[in-house]
Amino acid sequence: MTNLIRIAVVLMLLLAGCSNDTEDKSQEFDVPDADRVDESLHDFFGRVERERAELSPQTMAAAVAGTERERDYLGRLDIPSIERTRSELTMARRHRDELARFDRDSLAGQDALSWDIMAWQLDQRIAGAKFLWHDYPVNQLMAVHNQLPAFMTDQHPLRGDEDVDFYIQRLMQFPEVFRGAIEVVAYRAEQDLYPPRFALEKTARDARALVDGNAVDNPLVERFLARADRAGVLSDDRREGLEEELARVVREYVVPAYEVFADYLEGLIERARSNDGVWRLPDGNDYYRWVLRGHTTTGMTPGEIHRLGLEEVERLETKMHEILCEQGRCDGTVGERMAGLNADERFLFEDSDGGREATLQAYREIAVAAEQALADWFHDGPTAELEVRRVPEYREDTAFRAYYMRPAADGSRPGVFFANLRSVEEHPRFAMPTLAHHEAVPGHHLQISRMQAMEDVPSFRRSLGLHAHAEGWALYAEHLAAEMGLLDDPYDNLGRLQAELFRAVRLVVDTGLHYHRWSREKGIEYLLETTGMPESDVVAEIERYLVIPGQACAFKIGMLRMQAMRERAETELGEAFDIRDFHRVILDNGTMPLDLLDEVVDQWIEDGGGAEWKL
Predict the structure, then answer these.
(1) pLDDT tens readout for residues 392-438
(2) Which of 32, 110, 171, 209 is 20 to 30 A from 141 (CA-CA)?
(3) How many CB atoms are closer than 10 A to CB 90?
């Protein structure tokens, strides 16, 4: 899962509204409306992006990187608050009214598409106005306790001595950030809106673990210094004594912030009585339909998605059964046989530091081989460098099995494919190609770096994250890799089918948990039996779906829609169809809702296809 995608999840779940909290109580955050009659459409898009960014010092620092204004933000962090959350909705409503001033019918090409994309975003946000507090801003996967250290150690600029001073200023803001996190959770608790019990338990546990032990060994010290030493950007005077200076700041500011945060969460555990899906919340079924629409960008109902999942599970199990039988493995369910493969030592790296490094190196080699095979399938390759790294050990227990962090827009940071090496059994050799193709090439790294390179579009479209398009492409890319000849080994193809089966199972399980009222345990049992995945991975996945409802449905729905678009184009264009042209249309217009993507592809087909086509 991409860093872009993680950011999009948080934004989507925070930027809604609430029926009891729709009045504007946050003018300090909002930008007052003004007479902008002469404002151009592109100026409007730029202003919207700027006004959104101004609510986030971290975003603003990146937006004005390299300018004098950067110094105004580099020492500041985003502070959660009730007022800030409300202000997001107020701003969305104002922006939607302002967008309507521009006559959609008079627009064409990319301007029309940009109008449609922003209108969809804003309408979706506003349509969820009654669900402002239904999300879980504190959870075991993506919350301040693990997202903030990752931001600090991996994304805070590090170009010289002054950036260390800004880093320390940010460390000193940790108490305020964690007070804000407590504020927004406490406000939800007052309305009897609690996250699942396990989310509180694991978040509190992980928060304590991060500040346990000697401060010099804390990731905020150790990882930051390691990065500084690799970069070699600090003067000798600034580097001398820096370890102890950072350790002191961690002891005085970071550790107390984490301890107060963990104390508060532990006090909530007894009141959070359930590990069930969002159906248990007030208007839970309506909330789930809203988040499904946001993540899948379709109007599919939970029942329709559940049935689609069951159909796809049956289809994929049939294919896998055939391949398994060809390999002499005909007995037992598909899940049981895949579990046997997962545990087969010939497919596993050694459970040691050396084995884990060998796993990372294997992923690097797979990504390189995939990039070398792009020419017959794409006109253009990635526009940024790629690195493969291990998920930081302090995050391994609850982090995703893998995820992608987008490169810096200015080229100062590569794209990174993170692999979670908590268990070597989660990375059997036959599953590794498909995971690399999803996260790296031809998946997220190719997709996101090309999106960042788009020209002649508003900048908001170069960073937009919509899961159905983004994750749909990455799953499409897994299947495409087989077409490209990258999965000749039958076991590697089984790994691909297992990954696709896993995404089909997600449709069943996510709707099962949140709509059909399955228990957490039933979800775990179904996922284990159907996929044969390791139990540690299965538990992490089920708990992911429970705290981020609907998002897991985006992958398969997006893939199926893209495959349908391609089939339509192949049929209607005939000999004029070129797969490279189709992929350029899908990628080089950036992410968008699937209905809009259908319209773009149909326009390309109607215009006769071709490599030089532009909307």
Answers:
(1) 888 888 788 999 999 988 888 899 999 999 999 999 999 999 999 99
(2) 171
(3) 18
Q: At how many degrees (to 10) do helices 284-296 and 3-14 cross?
A: 140
Q: Determine how β-strand 402-405 pairs with β-strand 386-390.
A: unpaired
User: Alpha-carbon torsion 127, 130, 136, 137, what sign?
Assistant: positive
Neighbours of 348 (CB within 10 A): 18
Q: How far apart are CA 277 and CA 549, in angstroms?
A: 8
- Using 50, 70 and 90 to split pLDDT, how confident is the model at 14? very low
**Given a cut of 50, is residue 23 above it in pLDDT?**
no
d(CA 340, CA 6): 32
User: Residue 362: which H helix or E strand, with range?
Assistant: helix 353-372
Give CA–CA dist 32/189, Å, rounded: 32
Q: How far apart are the first and last CA of the chain?
A: 29
pLDDT digits (tens, 9 = 90+) for 476-500: 999 999 999 999 999 999 999 999 9
- What residue has token string 């690799």? 230
Q: Which tokens is 316 given?
A: 């994929």
DSSP one-letter code for 515:
T
Question: Before 392, cis peptide (omega within 30)?
Answer: no
* One-character DSSP codes across 203-223: HHHHHHHHT-S-GGGSHHHHH
* Backbone torsions φ then ψ of 518, nearest 5 degrees: -65, 150
pLDDT of 439 over the 90 cut? yes
pLDDT of 5 over the 50 cut:
no
The predicted model gives 108-118 an average pLDDT of 97
Q: Is the CB of residue 469 less than 8 Å from the CB of residue 594?
A: yes
| pLDDT given for residue 410 in this prediction | 81
Quote the crossing angle between the two packed helices 82-99 and 41-53, to the nearest 10°.
180
> Counting Cβ atoms within 10 Å, is residue 168 exposed (0-12), middle (13-18) or buried (19+)?
middle
User: By the 8 A CB rule, do 511 and 306 touch?
Assistant: yes
Distances (CA, A) of 162 to 159, 167, 169, 410: 8, 9, 11, 20
- Greatest CA span in the chain, whole angstroms? 74
